[in-house]
Design a protein that fits this description.
Order of helices and strands: HHH
Structural class: mainly alpha
Radius of gyration: 18 Å
Number of strands: 0
Strand content: under 5%
Shape: elongated
Distance between the termini: 67 Å
Helix content: over 70%
């Protein structure tokens, strides 16, 4: 494999990772808000801080490589976040039903 092809593969994977991390930065606060356990809320908040640092590091890598992180969406992370959002919505629906007089 040529060096240029390896570089493109490397950049493509970094862009996928950057997308995944940024999607998590958006999703983790919602997950923390929906968490019913104090420990889980704390865990999500700590994970958010770590993920924000990952994003900063990836931005430094892109700058050092003379490239930009835009242009790719991590479909795997998007699917995981969608599934998590559906679970949160389902929990809210169940909670509302349990409070309704019946």
């Amino acid at each position: 494999m040529k060096e240029s092809a390896l570089r493109e593969l490397y950049l493509d994977e970094l862009k996928d990772l950057y997308s995944a991390e940024n999607q998590l930065v958006e999703a983790l606060p919602k997950m923390a808000e929906a968490a019913t356990s104090a420990d889980l809320k704390t865990g999500f908040k700590e994970h958010l801080k770590q993920t924000e640092e990952h994003v900063r590091r990836l931005e430094k890598i892109f700058k050092a490589l003379g490239d930009t992180p835009e242009g790719k969406k991590c479909k795997g992370m998007a699917g995981l976040i969608k599934e998590g959002s559906e679970m949160i919505d389902e929990m809210k629906t169940r909670a509302k039903r349990s409070w309704m007089p019946g």
